[in-house]
Amino acid sequence: MYLAVLVLGFVCNSLSASTTWLCRRLGETRGRAATFILRNVLGIPVWVLGLALAVHTHSAPLFAPSVTAEILGRCLLALGSVLIIVALSALRGRAALPSTHDPLIEHGPYAHVRHPIYSGLLLNLVAIVLVHPRRAVALACALAVIWVFVQSRLEELDLVQRLPEYRGYMARVPRFVPRLLRR
After folding, report:
1. Which one of 44, 79, 143, 181 has the minimum C-beta count within 10 Å?
2. 98-102, 111-115, 131-135, 162-166: which range is least confident on average?
């Protein structure tokens, strides 16, 4: 059950990565509304529900729970959540309601990685497995990691259409992990 819900959420969320196409077909206002509904009404809530169902699904343990894994997991969860909040504040609502007229954001965490929201989500997914080390959770989180890579690529294809300068930004800024040494 949780897998079907998870995949349905991923599909809806992935369809939201076609802002340019939706705005061209439906007009700017309706295209933005469609993106909003696909991402924020159908996509994110449904895949989060899928993850929650996985956490509450009885399955074999992946490894024995430990205090160390629990503490590390909670630290990663906090770090990932802070990164997501900082990234969302840098976007100022553009993540929820993207437009074909959005400017390229290159400050805050976006100066270091192209997808800081997904970087935070990846940390959160690892944290969930550490805190709830069961096979159902690991499978759901592994599928979510694959989806993050696919979704980020779909969004980049859309962003290159909406923001011509995004191609240069992609060449300068890594996708998920900041460079430790600047060139």
Report:
1. 181
2. 98-102
Q: How far is CA 164 from the centre of its chain?
A: 23
pLDDT at 68 over 80: yes
Q: What is the mean pLDDT of residues 124-141?
A: 98
DSSP the chain: -HHHHHHHHHHHHHHTT-HHHHHHHH-HHHHHHHHHIIIIIIIHHHHHHHHHHHHTS---BSS---HHHHHHHHHHHHHHHHHHHHHHHHHTTTTTS--TTPPPP-SGGGGT-S-HHHHHHHHHHHHHHHHS-BHHHHHHHHHHHHHHHHHHHHHHHHHHHH-TTHHHHHHHS-SSS--SS--
